[in-house]
Structures are given as structure tokens and as C-alpha cells.
Design brief:
Largest sheet of chain A: 6 strands, antiparallel
Oligomer: homodimer
Shape of chain A: globular
Strand content of chain A: 25-35%
Helix content of chain A: 25-40%
Strand order of the largest sheet of chain A: 1-2-3-6-5-4
Chain lengths: 183, 183
């Protein structure tokens, strides 16, 4: 299990807001709404059904060639197009209930909100917290390519199976000026 | 469903840390560990099995007279006895798996950690976010009786049943100096 200590190994001084974004096992949308003080919405950049390759099949515990919903979104505030978080998710289609499938594939609804509205019981398991660099994502966030990106990958598990594997990414310069004093 | 806006109705200017403590649907222990930068432990103040009265039976959807585990704890940092959060929980005994029952009744393990370690799938539903006053709790936190207390009550739901109803309380003066800047 990952704990608050893990993010100390990233070799960057992280703000508490950044630590929360990397460590929480709750809804990222709720967290972003509190951090920004504004409603958060999803903007879908890409949404397609793909076939699982070997590696992806192992990760999701499905068969090679099984259908996966691949969704790329940014979470952003309603009245501001600057992305807060970039997220990619992989969902085995066969594991989706009909209503969840509609919310996920046809509508711009944040995952945490789908889970709450559809009353889906689950748990989240963080697989990886890491730093990365990616010029395209740097451009998306409007930061220089030299700025490291913080990322985490976690599974949402329901009925003992991976319902969804999600990777969330944001620049080291986002949520950085956050100063949360201890009580 | 409660959203970030609900806590605006409390008529106090709340810090973002306080809003997170009231709004999160994730582990409070993880949140407290990030906010304080220290490991968080449970100190059990009271632990007893009680019979459900009518009101409690309705809340938990059990029969009057059914056994409930009533647990009163504070969450605190390992090397500091000041309470961070005071929490009362009610758990229908019959709904507890054996291992969960042991962790809850015999050991000082935070709920979020039990759920994660036992791989229990659940969802959290916030029932009430409110302010209250209570002289004994004020004394416990070492604050004047005039300081309002912030509290929230939520259910942890598993297999469609309330596994646990929890009320968490902390003074308006805790986590108050928190200044989280938006990105």
C-alpha cells in the first residue's frame, strides 16, 4: 500500500495539494473542486474502443484482443479552458454496466461522479507514482518542456476486477504555490 | 449528492483543508497524513457493543435490539497526543467479516486502512455537514467552549448495506491557517 511517504521519493519538494492529488483514494474531481473553489468538468479529447494487446491484457486481467474503452480527458474548471489534470483511462468493455457505459462513452462525466451516481462500490489501488516528461503534454498545459510532469497510475477495482486503470498527469508547476499549514 | 458548494452554507469562512476534511469521499487518515506530514494513528477512547434503539436501527437499516459496535476514537499524529479528529462510529456487528471485526474491535487501526488492507469495496455517502458545540469535545481539543465545532456524518456502504455510520468532528480553529492557492 502506498503511504504519504512514497511521494517523498520523487526528489522534488511537493506542495500538500500536489501530494493529495497523487495520494488520495477519493474522487479527484471533488479534490480539484475544493482546491480551485470552482466546479470541475470533463473535456473529452479522445474516446475509442481498442483491442487489448498482451501487456494491457495482463494489466487488466482480460484476454488479448478483448475490447477496451480508451478515454483521454482533461479535467478543467467550467469557465476556464486551462487543463487542471490530464487523464487516460482503460476500461474493459465487458465489465461495464449499461448505464456506466453510457456515462463513460457518450457523456462528459467525471469518473468519481459516475461511481457516486451509479452507487458503484469500489476501491482504488495506486500502482505507480512517478515523474515523467512529455512535450505534447507540456504544450497542452502551456508549460516549458523542461518542466517535469507528476503522474500516478491507479486501478478502480469493483467485484474483485479492475474496472478501470487510470493515469493522471499534471505539471510540477501546477498546485505548487499551495501552503497548507499544519494545525 | 453533496458538492463543494454545501460547505459554503455553514456561515464560516473555511480553509481548503477544512473543506477537504468535510467533503472528501476518500480516506481521512491519508488526508490527515498529507496535511500534517506525519503518520496518523488511532487512539481508542471507548469501544463497546450496544443494542440498537429505534432511531439507530432505522439509520442503519437493522432491527431494533440488534448488536452494534460503538467505537469512539481520536485520530492523532504518532508523536503528539493532540487530537486531529474526533470520530464516533456505529457498525452493525452482523455485517462485519471476521477479520474486519478483529481490526475494528481489538486493534487501533484507522477505518480507511482496514478497508484498504482487507480489500473491501465500498462507497461513502455524506449524510450531514454541520456545525455543533460541545463542551467536552472542546476540552478534548483544548479549545475554548465558544469555538464552534465542524462535523460531518457519512455512511460507508458495502454490498448495498450500511457497514458503518461515522461522525467526525474538529474545531473551527483546526486546519484553519491553511492557504491553498489555486493553480
Amino acid at each position: 500500500m502506498h503511504t504519504w511517504k512514497d511521494v517523498k521519493d520523487l526528489n522534488f519538494p511537493l506542495s500538500k495539494a500536489q501530494r493529495l492529488l497523487l495520494m488520495t483514494d477519493g474522487s479527484i474531481t471533488t479534490l480539484l473542486e475544493v482546491l480551485t473553489g470552482q466546479p470541475v468538468v470533463v473535456k473529452t479529447l479522445l474516446q475509442q474502443v481498442v483491442k487489448a494487446d498482451v501487456e494491457r491484457a495482463v494489466e487488466l486481467d482480460i484476454e488479448e484482443g478483448d475490447s477496451i474503452n480508451y478515454r483521454v480527458v482533461v479535467l478543467k474548471n467550467q469557465n476556464n479552458d486551462s487543463p487542471l489534470i490530464y487523464a487516460e483511462s482503460y476500461t474493459p468493455i465487458a465489465r461495464l454496466q449499461k448505464e456506466f457505459r453510457h456515462d463513460l462513452m457518450k457523456a462528459d462525466v467525471p469518473i468519481g461522479r459516475i461511481l457516486a451516481q451509479r452507487r458503484i462500490e469500489s476501491r482504488r489501488e495506486i500502482r505507480l507514482i512517478d515523474t515523467t516528461s512529455n512535450d505534447e503534454l507540456g504544450d497542452l498545459f502551456g508549460v516549458p518542456h523542461s518542466v517535469p510532469l507528476l503522474s500516478r497510475t491507479y486501478d478502480i477495482i469493483s467485484h474483485g476486477m479492475v474496472l478501470m486503470r487510470i493515469t493522471e498527469t499534471f505539471p510540477l508547476t501546477s498546485f505548487a504555490k499551495t501552503d497548507i499549514e499544519s494545525p
